[in-house]
Amino acid sequence: MKKKIAVIYGDGIGREVTEQAIKALDAVAEVYNHTFIYERGLLGAEAIDATGEPLPHKTIDIAKKSDAVLFGAVGDPRFDNNPAAKVRPEQGILAIRKELELYSNIRPVVSYKSLNHLSPLKLRNIEQVDFVIYRELSSGIYFGEHYTNNNGGTAHDVCTYNVHEIERIAHSAFRTAQQRHKKLHLVDKANVMETSRLWRKTVTEVARQYSDVELKFMYIDNAAMQLIINPGQFDVILTENLFGDILSDESGAITGSLGLLPSASLGSKIGFFEPVHGAFNEAAGKDIANPVGSILSAAMMLEFFNMPEEADLVKQAVSWTLNSGFVTRDIDSVNYYYTSTIGDLISDFILGKIPDAVNKSNIELMKSTII
Ligand SMILES: NC(=O)C1=CN([C@@H]2O[C@H](COP(=O)(O)OP(=O)(O)OC[C@H]3O[C@@H](n4cnc5c(N)ncnc54)[C@H](O)[C@@H]3O)[C@@H](O)[C@H]2O)C=CC1
Ligand SMILES: CC(C)CC(=O)C(=O)O
Ligand SMILES: [Mg+2]
């Protein structure tokens, strides 16, 4: 099969983690005789530096002409530390999500047995964690009006949702729950916010079409705590844009690192695949970032291409690598490996090149003094 993939590295560690995902895709292409054609687009600070715009038109064109987009991350301390900046890298990722109508952001969270002892949470809390967050991605407070008045003394960020925006992602989340353990938590703040009350009313209506799925409501503040004390209770979490953003980073702590989590953003047209994490600028260029979130995002892209066997092979390669103790510094601060080494191991596994008993000492260990 032939597929055209728009590749957007963005900023910080975006390039180095995405390069590992491309290695995995190239290995899959070789094994299954597919052709993946990549075209690069600019987004974020790299795009502002090159064109003055966080999302150049050319990038939108490249994305729209592709079957899917593989994205790294955006963000740069030059903008983070400048509240007066008029143009920001993050405007680029928000704008492309809107432009491509990516309303459904799917963030699976799975714990790895072999890594559980390295998680900051107690073992008994994280065993058998396997849930998925459905985060609404193209509306809510990130897309409302942002403005100041009163000579800059008052700031406003407006949160708006309508029934259609809630219904379309609710259907996606319920359909997924039907194929999983048939439990769906709607996370909101309906005791305070009008938008949350609209979510509850709309999702309750949608739920009538999915009578085999148990619907539960949970307030966001409680959900943030429940994720830590009993994450195993969740199957599908459905929530709005801001709450989903926060809960998915929190979920990184459950698995052991935010760097492990992938995501798929879907809408009516194109699929967009990116790790959950951001630009982690302190690590940029040091070959220490965890590439697994990006590689598993590529696996989600393969599922989107209707290549389930290929996607499974990538997931198996990731599991083998982690279970064999080949991990980056975020997972094990003593024995850790380069980003590129992990990428090489994963693509070698896909290509069937890994011997049964690989000798770890042959693979270069990071020096713990590197940063
Ligand atoms: N989707 C995107 O492009 C996102 C962009 N950002 C932007 O990224 C920049 C940095 O933001 P932060 O809040 O520091 O979030 P971040 O996700 O970049 O990093 C937070 C922390 O998570 C860990 N981490 C993240 N990714 C990792 C990886 N691949 N391997 C190992 N550890 C990893 C690191 O400990 C890091 O300090 C900001 O400019 C922010 O606006 C933040 C979140 C998402
Ligand atoms: C710019 C942010 C909204 C990106 C982010 O944090 C995310 O999508 O997880
Ligand atoms: Mg986020």
UniProtKB/TrEMBL annotation:
Organism domain of life: Bacteria
Cofactor(s) essential for the protein: Mg(2+); Mn(2+)
Keywords: Amino-acid biosynthesis, Branched-chain amino acid biosynthesis, Leucine biosynthesis, Magnesium, Metal-binding, NAD, Oxidoreductase
InterPro entries from the UniProt entry: IsoCit/isopropylmalate_DH_CS (IPR019818), IsoPropMal-DH-like_dom (IPR024084), Isopropylmalate_DH (IPR004429)
EC nos: 1.1.1.85
SUPFAM superfamilies attached to this UniProt entry: Isocitrate/Isopropylmalate dehydrogenase-like
Subunit structure: Homodimer.
Protein name as catalogued: 3-isopropylmalate dehydrogenase
Source species of the chain: Polluticaenibacter yanchengensis
Gene from which this protein is expressed: leuB
